Amino acid sequence: MPQDRGVTQSGLAIRRMSASSEPPPSPNVRTGPEYAKLIDISRCIGCKGCEVACKEWNELGIEPTENFGSMQSHRDLGPDTWLLMRFNEIEVGGDLQWLIKKDACLHCEEPGCLYACPSPGAIVQYENGIVDFNHDSCIGCQLCVSGCPFDIPRFNPATRKVYKCNMCVDRVEAGLEPACVKTCPTNAISWGTKEDMVTLAEQKVERLQARGFDNATLYDPAGVGGTHMMYVVPHGDQLGEYDLPADPKASPGALAALGGLRKLGASALGLGILGTALHYLGFGPQEPGAAEVPSNGVGGGTAPMSAGGESRPTVESQATGESSPTVPSPPTGETPPTGDPTGSTEG
Amino acid sequence: MTPDISRRDLLKVSALAGGAGLVNALGFDLKPAYAAARELKISNAREFKTVCPYCAVGCGAIAYVHGSGGLNTVNSIIHVEGDPDSPINGGTLCPKGAAQMQLAMSPRLEKGPLHREAGASEWTEVSWDFAMDWFARKFKDSRDASFVEEDEQGRTVNRCEGIGWVGSATVANEDAYLITKTMRAMGLVYIDHQARI
Amino acid sequence: MTNHWKDIKNADVVLVMGANPAENHPCGFKWALEARDERGAQIVTVDPRYTRTSAVADHHMQIRPGSDIAVLGGMIHKILDEGLFHEEYVRLHTNASFIIEDGFGFENGLFAGFDQAQGAYDKTAWEYERGSDGFVLRDMTLQHPRCVFQLMREHYSRYTPDVVAQIAGCSAEEFLAMAEIVCSTGTADRVGTIMYAVGWTMHTVGSQIIRTGAILQLILGNIGRPGGGINAMRGHANVQGATDHAIVAGILPGYLKVPGPDQTSLASHLEASTPRPLVPDTVNYWGNYPRFMVSQLKAWFGDTVGPENEFGYHYLGKPADDATWLSMWDQAHQGRLEGLVALGFNPLLAGPDVPRLLRAMANLKWKVVIDPFMLDSAEFWRAPDVDPAEIDTEVLYLPATHWVERAGSFTNSGRWAQWKEQAIDAPEGVRSDTWILSELFWRVKELYEEEGGAFHEPILNLQWNYLNPREPGLEELAAEINGSDLETGQLLSSFGQLRDDGTTTSGNWLYTGSFTEDGNMMARRGTDDPSGMGFHHDWAFSWPLNRRVLYNRASADGEGRPWDASRAGIRWTGERWVGDVPDYGPTTPPDQAGAFIMNEEGVARLFTTYLVDGPFSEHYEPVESPTPNVLHEDVPTNPLIRWYDGVQETLANDDDDYPYPCTVYRVVEREHFVTSNVPYLVELMPDFFVEVPEGLAVEKGIENGERVRVWSKRGEVEGVAVVTKRIKPLTVNGSTVWTVGIPVHWGFKGITTGAMANNLTPFVGDANTSCPEFKAFLVNLEKA
């Protein structure tokens, strides 16, 4: 089922794709509206219904945890915990405030993760605003983690892939709201077009200000072009206490710079060079060793089995530079193309 | 608790596909590369309207069941989410309600009757026939031993003093009614459930 | 609930007290937030802890556990003192105008009529004064010194803001700031609701706390109105239904009464249970008691009973004494109970004083536990520190189906009975509760047929005419509960059709109309709400008769006009009532009868003789308290508490070092114990913990996340300290008091295990209901 435009098989139009130029217009594809999730913190009770709904729908595993003196389930997000309710007790003007924040991917309009990703197609942004990871193309380099201004994606050493919220893209594609939205007991999470959510947010902010929350604000930071998960924040002067960066930034600068490397020719270009280039550009992993990961291969990972049960090339084999398909073949059993240079960037 | 990675990985198939006409960062055309888009897992599941088993808000829920219901199938619940029609919860569910599938399909559910002898340190598996005979025998013997037909003042009281029954706030009304009907007919007076505590 | 979940959206003020609905009823709590955001309602929490509900409330006030009556009484005082009550409502719909006999009074912590020797009240001192016609004398001006209104004013006059502050530990200013909001709804155009739960019931004064809340709501004119009421939020899926169907000591289905030994005939039972009208204009619906009782006996024993054998009245056991939870376990503790059946229940973890419960269980000869999961209660013989070799109790565990493996109905807190479908089949090896119960019945019956034995006529005569007698169908049972006319064979549609001559049956009159000739009303799923009030009459069945707001006649004035036309409950058109299903004759003119049709007074009771411990409420300290009772030091605790042998010795006394009030509770991630089998929920809240106030933690050198040991006179627990700002120090009667909080969800079975909170709690209960005092007791703690 080859596609002739930048679309998913079932029709989601792609706006941006990692390590790739802007896709051409997609005249045959319904682009649909841009969606957004709105978190009204003033209605959130921290019940973690969203946390469970996310895990249940996406069939995420249990991540070992313990009570560390908090109502929080885990200290941090994880590869199997895409959504974490964070709790913080502070005093504002002598009054106790229990700040509870749903922490998950904000689905930036200008996605720092996508810009940082060196693997073509491993991160995509659909026209509807969702930023999605394609794990078949993920090489586990973790540049997306460094690229994210919100510190959201998490690496799973066992699969050697990086994970985050995909906004339940399968549900959205089928006309349903994401699982966290559907479940939220107090309607603290709303879902609709970005435009409608901004309008709703403005009403909510006004209402909060009328209730005495003078600093109530909408969090839709311009530095990342706005987000597709926005917050209504009752104490807008306490963003830091909610763990929300005041002025997050992301730009396609790194990607544009990479464009200049094209003339070098990909077949001659090992990933070591790519990794070095990225490191040079300031997006590289923090750990000295980590920058070496791509060139050393990411052995150990096994690509998912296709529905037909055909064995897939391992990521390790790709890492050797042998050309191989980046993703499993569709369940039709159609033979995936081989010997393609695109494989070289996967390795 | 151990991470359940393999299951996730088998089921989590990315929705992504690439497309012709894209070029990678290094200037080469990308061949068509696409994955099987993940189907909505509940799209062909049968729906059953249920009510959340936890607190007494009474949230409407929908259990999505895999399997046609045909003779050769053992059906299983693959997902539970809120019933959007319910005027009570409008499709929402708290964390407990959102995890109903794990309760319904738990591998920790027991699979047969167990009996523990006096002083024993382990259970013994027993048959239902053994179990119910044992239960009836104990019940009757204790009832006979503790039944009071007349009290000290000669009043007819017909009560069984030696058996207590507790529960349950978790059974349906119809079973709750049958419990009361049966146990009151047996003459039990020590009858209570979670409403008290 | 007098009202129901969605109705909370109609409120102007939501007082959440003795409850934490954001935590324990999140999806129902949304309607409070809806009221807040759509109506501008104010949400107020009054609680020993700043909770997740407080996090989204407009106002929070922290109180000491067990000081609820003082706080509510303080508001009653404020309302009466400042004239904030809804005067017309009070005059029309309450017994404020009723005159009480001379001789009633309250002194030094005791109401008139206390009999020291009996430890009980002689309630003749609380009677209404009657006229020559036998009806109660009233003073509609509310000025008579012995009218309920004036007695109430006097009784609560002691609850000044300073006294409230002294008892509850807040400041008088904090109290007044909170009270200002709650007391603002005593007008026709404003309505307030109360959401409460076991934070009120689980005290030795639990029933009186609820009564104080009811009095508050009545004088504000909030009962019967949409957006008002007094709403008990219940904690298990069918705790309401199991109560309605009376898996409860002391009652039969439909809140009929278990007969006592002194009621030696059906006639004497009916005589004692059927109230007489106290005023000429009352419906006095309980006057129909004989119809309900006889129809129930006919449903149970069929053709084998009739007038000739008192409809099988003597088939029912007549308990010698209280038979509630604590009494049952006291009997076991004394070795007087041979066997115990626990179905869908984990009594070891659920009850107070686990060490005592363990001893009581070990005294049983046999025990049967029926549940889908293995329970701590089934394995009490290998509880921590228990040597199985020393436990002679034989135990049988039977795996039963769970909720989606079986159809049937659950009744929610709002009295909506909702039918659920069976989604999957029971796995091999697992049986339904219905099957287990039937099999027990048949096998016991067969043993009696073979061997004879103690009086077993009722067992032989119990009606069991089901299509599959070894596993009755749930719809057959629903039909039996609903009831039939034996002359026509038709299912009934209203309990108004029940008769007391044995020609009708009804297993539970409250559910008549739930399963009729028109079908299973509980399975209805119509979503229409034409009035926009949230009644949803086509969704499921709400007892009684599909009524959504109880006492809704009180939502209208003397002429039948709604107090607030924008939020009408019912309205008199001149010919009939429209709106909700009226709690009144559908065509009875508004001036023909009192609004509170279940009461022989025809109005609501601000003053009652129905409770054992007083016609008004009074603040008594918990049995373990850090302070003397500042109102009456000589009568510190509820004088009507029932004391079981050896229990007083298990309470902290003045010489002991247990300085900290402690309260136990649930968290949203768990529900009691069953969720310890659910990985995602265990992951959300993995470990037992103790909430320690920040200041106390500093004092004790406890860092957040360190382990802490907590002990009471009964037992101890150990777990992770969650050091929090959400519990502040209180100033109680001049001294600083720190409160400690402990969740209840752990035991020795489950994916993660942890300390049993009820190791700490006292084996003592409310004077009226015997609900144990889980919510206020004393502990000490240290870094572990």
Number of helices of chain C: 21
Question: Termini distance of chain A?
Answer: 25 Å
| Poorly predicted runs of 5 or more residues of chain A | 1-5, 259-347
Give me the side-by-side strand order of the main sheet of chain A: 9-2-11-10
Rounded radius of gyration of chain C (Å): 26 Å
Strand composition percent of chain C: 15-25%
Principal-axes shape call of chain C: globular
Structure description:
Chain A has 347 residues and is an alpha+beta fold. Chain A contains eleven helices and eleven strands. Chain A has helices at residues 49-58, 112-116, 143-147, 169-173, 179-183, 194-210, 253-259, 271-280, 293-296, 315-319, 342-346, and strands at residues 14-17, 35-40, 84-92, 95-103, 123-126, 131-133, 154-156, 161-163, 189-193, 217-219, 229-233. In chain A, a hairpin with a 4-residue loop joins strand 7 and strand 8 (161-163). The radius of gyration of chain A is 21 Å and the shape is globular. Residues 1-5 and 259-347 of chain A have low confidence and may be disordered. Chain B is an alpha+beta fold. Chain B starts with a helix and ends in a 5-residue tail after the last strand. Chain B has three domains: 7-38, no CATH class; 46-105, Phosphorylase Kinase, domain 1, CATH 3.30.200; 114-196, no CATH class. In chain B, the strands form three sheets. In chain B, strands 1-2-3 form a three-stranded antiparallel β-sheet. A three-stranded mixed β-sheet of chain B has the order 6-7-8. A two-stranded antiparallel ribbon of chain B has the order 4-5. Mean pLDDT of chain B is 85; it is low at 1-37. Chain C is built from 21 helices and 31 strands. A six-stranded mixed β-sheet of chain C has the order 25-27-26-31-24-30. In chain C, a hairpin with a 3-residue loop joins strand 10 and strand 11. The longest helix of chain C has 19 residues, at 433-451. Classes of the chains: A alpha+beta (347), B alpha+beta (197), C alpha/beta (784). Chains A and B meet through helix 1, helix 4, helix 5 and helix 7 of A and helix 1, strand 3 and helix 2 of B. Strand 7 (156-166) of chain B pairs parallel with strand 12 (339-343) of chain C.
Furnish the topology, listing elements before pairings:
The complex is a heterotrimer of chains A (347), B (197) and C (784).
Chain A: E1 14-17, E2 35-40, H1 49-58, E3 84-92, E4 95-103, H2 112-116, E5 123-126, E6 131-133, H3 143-147, E7 154-156, E8 161-163, H4 169-173, H5 179-183, E9 189-193, H6 194-210, E10 217-219, E11 229-233, H7 253-259, H8 271-280, H9 293-296, H10 315-319, H11 342-346
Parallel strand pairs in A: 2-11
Antiparallel strand pairs in A: 1-5, 2-9, 3-4, 5-6, 7-8, 10-11
Chain B: H1 5-11, E1 46-51, E2 60-66, E3 76-82, H2 95-98, H3 100-104, E4 114-116, E5 124-125, H4 128-146, E6 147-150, E7 156-166, H5 173-185, E8 188-192
Chain C: E1 13-17, H1 21-24, H2 26-39, E2 42-47, H3 52-55, E3 59-62, H4 68-82, H5 87-93, E4 106-107, E5 110-111, E6 114-115, E7 120-121, H6 148-156, H7 161-168, H8 172-182, E8 192-196, H9 198-201, H10 206-219, E9 230-232, H11 239-244, E10 251-252, E11 256-257, H12 266-273, H13 289-301, H14 325-333, E12 339-343, H15 347-350, H16 354-362, E13 366-371, E14 394-399, E15 408-411, E16 416-420, H17 433-451, H18 457-461, H19 474-482, E17 484-485, E18 504-505, E19 515-516, E20 519-520, E21 541-542, E22 570-572, E23 577-579, E24 660-665, H20 679-684, E25 689-693, H21 694-700, E26 707-711, E27 716-724, E28 730-732, E29 735-737, E30 740-743, E31 777-783
Parallel strand pairs in C: 1-2, 1-8, 2-3, 8-9, 12-13, 13-14, 24-30, 25-27
Antiparallel strand pairs in C: 4-5, 6-7, 10-11, 15-16, 16-21, 17-18, 19-20, 22-23, 24-31, 26-27, 26-31, 28-29
